[in-house]
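WARN retry 2 of 3 for item q-0093 after timeout on previous attempt; input resubmitted unchanged.
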Amino acid sequence: MLQDALDSFSDVFSPPFRSVMVKSVGLTVAVLIGAGFVLDRLALHFVHVSHGWMATAISLAIGLGLVAGLALLAAPTTSLVASFFFDEVAAIVEHEVDPNGPPGRTAPLWQASIASLRFAALTLIVMLAALVLFFVPGVGFAAWFGANAYLLGREYFELAAMRFRSIEEARAMRRYFALPVFLAGLIVAAFVAVPILNLATPLFAAALMARLHKRLERRALAPSPL
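OK item q-0093 returned
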């Protein structure tokens, strides 16, 4: 699995991925900037202090709140962006690791959109829950890391599996291989924890889970020893 992670990391900066990375990071940054502008307008609409130290303190608090809010929105935003580029990235990786195998199918737009919105909402909920636990000594970071590992591993693996099977079959496969999927999710969670680099999370996770799916599929189809 570590080799899969290294290969996936190399893929992110390879020529076939560069145009996808520019589009993915650009869209993620644009969404975050738009969200920041909206939040700033809302804050200014509800807060009216024109002068004095109180205005300065409130402006500082609003600024810090916007930074915290955008940091919280980064994970669900990258999850939402993933739906637009997952199939493109997965197809490149699948051909790389299994050039003679059948190509995966692109999910219908409505199905990918629903899955992406559900993924983004779940990510935001888990991030909020982990944020609450973050203030519990000895629990916060572990809760954040574990929750992200489970969620990211589950959702990205199912997206990779759904290119070759139904939603029900993809979920069944994910449950059957729960441990390797969670371990791969830990790697993705570690990637998410690195500032700036985490903007490429959809590309890295798509490449990693496409590889993992192919490897687990071969394991499932391999004849059992007598």
